[in-house]
């Protein structure tokens, strides 16, 4: 099931055109490669490149290294939005090699609907139809690591965390709507242990999920930003203090947001990511204004991105979304 870079490039070209492909190539050229890692202690491993998935080498290396060398074997490891397992696999590889883990079986909990959606074909031509289960593909990719992984198939909106357990690491790649992120905060965050647990927000350096930036800003008294994994969406937080339940459960409602809070949240979020991924965080700010139906504000934030020297990547997607809305017939 190996998908070559060339195939991926062709798919991106077909899906989003030449400018997006050029952005990606430029990013890849600046990207830490196996020979030139941005975080040398991550010990990138060619085996991490094998699984088909949407995570970067740095994300995979970080997850494997943490599970092997930092995890003390206590609590569970949770992977939300596992798709074909590109994060569950390095986690399981780390668990397998961790001498402090006395019982590795099923310790990585992989949550997903495991139902095929048409957009996934841009990453893999699996020959599946909308709604088909892709759990067999996930299990095939895991191979003999499957013994270390507990799949939880179903809608995360109604999911519960592994029974009775503290969560040592939560890899969150399922903040796909404000409602889903709220459900995850409610169900999983209370089991993160202050002082040791990690929350990794994979949707952080991404334009699609502005509710993540708002929500984490509101929770910042409990979240210590540790690092942004370069050239990826992932922001790694250490849980520094217990969460306030009221804050955890507070919905992010785009229409009801205060402008001063939004401005502070995005300045904060921008300060946490490594260049050039700031473009994606700022694009989320533009997307938020689109969600609020404030096209003039979205336009202003796109202009501000240029002043800040932010270019390309998700900003192009946000600009295209704005263009589409401007071209749309006025609401009655
Ligand atoms: C961007 S993909 C994750 C990519 C993956 N982490 C990887 O390593 O390649 C998002 C995943 O979230 C899952 N997902 C989205 N909404 C969900 C929901 N409400 N409940 C469960 N899974 C969901 C999708 O099925 C998809 O596999």
Descriptive account of the structure:
The protein has three domains: 1-30, no CATH class; 38-255, Rossmann fold; 275-324. Strands 3-2-1-4-5-7-6 form a seven-stranded mixed sheet, covered by helices on one side. The mean pLDDT is 90. The protein starts with a helix and ends in a 5-residue tail after the last helix. With 332 residues, it is an alpha/beta fold. Helix content is 41%, strand content 11%. The protein binds S-adenosylmethionine. Residues 53-55, 81-83, 86-87, 112-113, 155-157, 173-174, 176, 180 line the site of S-adenosylmethionine. Residues 53-55, 81-83, 86-87, 112-113, 155-157, 173-174, 176, 180 line the site of S-adenosylmethionine (SAM).
Key descriptive features of the protein:
binds S-adenosylmethionine, globular, 11% strand, 3 domains, alpha/beta, Rossmann fold, 332 residues
Give a quick summary of the entry.
This protein is of the alpha/beta class and 332 residues long. The chain has 12 helices and 7 strands. It has 3 domains: 30 residues, no CATH class; 218 residues, Vaccinia Virus protein VP39 (Rossmann fold), CATH 3.40.50.150; 50 residues.
């Amino acid at each position: 099931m190996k998908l070559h870079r060339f195939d991926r490039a062709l798919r991106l070209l077909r899906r989003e055109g030449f400018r997006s492909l050029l952005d990606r190539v430029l990013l890849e050229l600046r990207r830490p490669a196996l020979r030139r890692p941005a975080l040398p202690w991550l010990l990138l491993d060619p085996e991490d490149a094998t699984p088909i998935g949407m995570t970067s080498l740095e994300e995979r290396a970080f997850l494997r290294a943490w599970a092997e060398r930092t995890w003390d074997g206590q609590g569970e490891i949770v992977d939300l939005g596992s798709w074909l397992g590109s994060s569950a696999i390095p986690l399981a590889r780390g668990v397998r090699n961790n001498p402090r883990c006395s019982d590795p079986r099923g310790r990585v909990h992989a949550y997903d609907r495991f139902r095929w959606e048409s957009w996934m074909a841009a990453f893999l031509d699996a020959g599946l139809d909308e709604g088909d289960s892709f759990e067999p593909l996930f299990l095939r990719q895991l191979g003999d690591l499957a013994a270390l992984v507990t799949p939880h198939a179903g809608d995360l909106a109604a999911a519960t965390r592994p029974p009775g357990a503290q969560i040592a690491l939560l890899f969150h790649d399922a903040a796909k709507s404000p409602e889903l992120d709220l459900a995850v905060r409610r169900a999983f965050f209370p089991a993160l242990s202050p002082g040791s647990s990690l929350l990794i927000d994979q949707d952080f350096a991404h334009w699609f999920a502005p509710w993540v930036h708002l929500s984490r800003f509101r929770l910042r008294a409990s979240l210590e930003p540790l690092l942004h994994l370069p050239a990826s969406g992932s922001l790694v937080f250490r849980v520094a203090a217990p969460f306030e339940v009221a804050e955890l459960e507070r919905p992010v409602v785009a229409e009801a947001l205060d402008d001063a809070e939004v401005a502070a949240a995005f300045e904060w979020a921008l300060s946490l990511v490594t260049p050039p991924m700031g473009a994606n965080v700022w694009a989320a700010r533009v997307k938020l204004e689109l969600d609020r139906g404030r096209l003039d504000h979205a336009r202003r934030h796109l202009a501000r991105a240029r002043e800040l020297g932010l270019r390309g990547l998700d900003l192009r997607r946000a600009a295209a979304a704005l263009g589409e809305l401007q071209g749309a017939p006025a609401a009655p």
